[in-house]
Amino acid sequence: MPDRGESIYEQRLAKLTKLRQRGVEPYPHRYHRSHTTQDVVFLFQDLEKEGKTNPETVFQVAGRIAALRGMGKATFMDIRDGWGKIQAYCRADALGKEEYAAIKDLDLGDIVGIEGRAFRTHTGEITLEVSQATLLSKSLLPPPEKWHGLRDVEIRYRQRYLDLMANQEARQAFVTRSRILAAMRRFLDGRGFLEVETPILLPQAGGAMARPFQTYHNALDCQLYLRIATELHLKRLIVGGFERVYEIGRIFRNEGISTRHNPEFTSLESYQAYADYNDVMAIVEEMVCHLAKEVLGTATITFKEHQIDLTPPWRRITLRQAILEHCGIDFPAFPDAQSLREEMLRRGISVEEWKGRGKLVDELISTFVEPNMIQPTFVLDYPVELSPLAKRKPEEPHLVERFEGFMGGMEIANAFTELNDPLEQRERFREQLRQREMGDEETETLDEDFLTALEHGMPPTGGLGMGIDRLAMLFTGQPSIRDVILFPMLRQKE
Question: Mind listing the pLDDT tens digit for each residue in 126-174?
Fold first, then answer.
């Protein structure tokens, strides 16, 4: 339990008791709010433009007390709601002895409704002169000490409500995230995509190379898994005749936590029939640039110390060129895991013995390529061992038509020309099982129901996965994924 500051808690509890003894309900059922704080400011400014310097309009606003300043027979309060804040001015001679005494009993963090007319103080601040105040919720615990800028990371993540109270920057980051999602839906809907929902609880977890969380269903008496991707069910819908589908939803992977990883995160997955990875590339660069312009008003974002230009076309480079450029290894020259492992060891790169060739290439990507991809870049054409659900390149069958999109030193998108040959897909799954037997826990499972769907015929398809949390990090300039997830995963306190 957090330290409640018992003396403050007891003092406020005593005030609560006195309120009830006086017949005041400290948690009333409702309050009619006529305007937000932002409405008051805008409307008052409009009235001033019309020459009405002493308007008779009575405003009723509601919000949390963010500041209290007593000045003899007058008290100033800052009232903050979801739209901003406004100053309230309470005079003893205007309110009366009993009403003003009730004002003096209010505390920081209390939620109040106030009624009054607007005016400007001699300092020029728009203020409401209070004619009536109503307590709407008595706060028994004080707000953060640093009301205007809570910096304790532990408190910010564990008690997000305090972070949202104290940090305007944090509030704005989550508003921006919400607007990204809304704009993304409009973009895809406008291009004929259908938003759908697929299961979260599954008899087996597939569609990605990751370890799942396990659970148990009592009534069905069976082991279930939280999904690690939405891919295999979305492709079933392509088989069924929906030609453009997408899902924005939670994904769960039993993996470590870092500034870029959270065990539950939000992804967009979309699938388009009669398209390939070139078509998906065009959609990604167009969509991300469009989102930035709509949400931020610009195609240039700032992330860490970098200015990133999202304007299409984005740079395109093959994976072979990228790895060669950043660490000097020409991975196609090492056709098996043993030879590639020896070359990496020769260059001082330590690797686990159980890792297959695909995982070794992936390590080269994450260690050398990804951190250097600052400007938007598509890295193309991955080894088949690393991409069990992607279609081979006709002219280079040891590679698949796959790209990853990078910017700001992070992967934000992963896409394929989808494998739709059920016989080859079955063999790819079997190879994944062989890798699992050799110690790799992050491999694809053999999903018979999905293979049955493919056997009914799936058209040529381009598929996309995009990390919403990382995109939100880039758009808001936040260095950690925890700063764009309202309730990130944290180690439990003792």
Answer: 999 999 999 999 999 998 876 566 778 888 899 999 999 989 899 999 9
Secondary structure of 446-490 in the HEC alphabet? CCHHHHHHHHCCCCCEEEEEEEHHHHHHHHHCCCCHHHCCCCCCC
Q: pLDDT (tens digit, 9 = 90+) per residue, 401-412?
A: 999 999 999 999
Q: pTM value?
A: 0.92
Instruction: For 164-216, write each residue's pLDDT tens digit.
Output: 998 989 999 999 999 999 999 999 999 999 999 999 999 999 988 899 999 99
Q: Which residue has the tokens 């660490």?
A: 327
Report the C-alpha gap between 457 and 423 in whole angstroms: 12
What's the CA gap between 315 and 292, in Å, rounded? 18
CB-based contact 75:82 (threshold 8 Å): no
Residue with the two structure tokens 């002169």: 129
Q: Are 329 and 348 in contact, with CB atoms under 8 Å apart? A: no
Q: Kindly list the distances between the CA atom of residue 5 and the CA atoms of 9, 167, 398, in Å, as whole numbers in the listed order.
A: 6, 22, 64
- Give pLDDT tens digits for 202-258: 999 998 889 999 999 999 999 999 999 999 999 999 999 999 999 999 999 999 899
Closest CA to 281 of 306, 247, 231, 315: 315
Full 3-state SS string of the chain: CCCCCHHHHHHHHHHHHHHHHCCCCCCCCCCCCCCCHHHHHHHHHHHHHCCCCCCCCEEEEEEEEEEEEEECCEEEEEEEECCEEEEEEEEHHHHCHHHHHHHHCCCCCCEEEEEEEEEECCCCCEEEEEEEEEEEECCCCCCCCCCCCCCCHHHHHHCHHHHHHHCHHHHHHHHHHHHHHHHHHHHHHCCCCEECCCCCEECCCCCCCCCCCEEEECCCCEEEEECCCCHHHHHHHHHHCCCEEEEEEEEECCCCCCCCCCCEEEEEEEEEECCCHHHHHHHHHHHHHHHHHHHHCCCEEEECCEEEECCCCCEEEEHHHHHHHHHCCCHHHCCCHHHHHHHHHHCCCCCCCCCCHHHHHHHHHHHHHHHHCCCCEEEEEEEHHHCCCECEECCEEEEEEEEEEEECCEEEEEEEEECCCHHHHHHHHHHHHHHHHCCCCCCCCCCHHHHHHHHCCCCCEEEEEEEHHHHHHHHHCCCCHHHCCCCCCCCCCC
| Whether 456 contacts 237, CB under 8 Å | no
Please state the φ and ψ torsions of residue 164, each to the nearest 5 degrees: -70, -35
Q: Are 261 and 480 in contact (CB under 8 A)?
A: no
**What count of other Cβ atoms lies within 10 Å of the Cβ of residue 446?**
15
Question: Would you tell me how many other CB atoms lie within 10 Å of the CB of residue 211?
Answer: 15
